[in-house]
Amino acid sequence: MVVLKGKQIYLRALEPEDLEFVYHVENDTTLWSLSDTQAPYSRFLIKQYLENAQQDIYEAKQLRLAICDLNNTTIGLIDLFDFDAKNKRAGIGIVIQNKGNRNKGYGKEALEILVNYCFQTLHLHQVFANIGEDNEASLGLFQSNGFKIIGLKKDWRFDGETYSHEYLLQRIND
Predict the structure, then answer these.
(1) pTM assigned to the model
(2) CA nearest to 129, candidates 106, 109, 116, 145
(3) pLDDT confidence of 24, banded at 50, 70, 90?
(4) Which of 36, 120, 129, 134 would you label with 147, given CA atoms 20 to 30 Å apart?
């Protein structure tokens, strides 16, 4: 049995009740620079997404999980994306929504749990992350979990005024 639970948090599948939480995360413009989001999402689209969230990772090529504290409060989201079963790899993204919940070890524990799930259950050979060069918190988080910077994508992100670089980080299952 797979247990996606740590000391402070657990990971669970998305539920219809997560509509408002996901809606607020996806429409928080301060988080858009962490992803490729460029336009707001409607509740209707998010509701449709949640209704289809039961798709198997092998079919959907992605998996989004809620990060919950032990009081059953949803505090963030962690994603597997670009899941590639043939080459045994996937990308990982994470967000802790409320700034007050950051730097408490929740993200670190969620990342550890998901990486272990990727290697032990999905039998992936490697996981990777794309992180902006100025996102020191995320760089530190992933590097503390054994990810190595393997490349720099120059002028990779455009915020409407300037370009910035993005690191590619990777962790290979030994």
Answers:
(1) 0.90
(2) 145
(3) confident
(4) 36
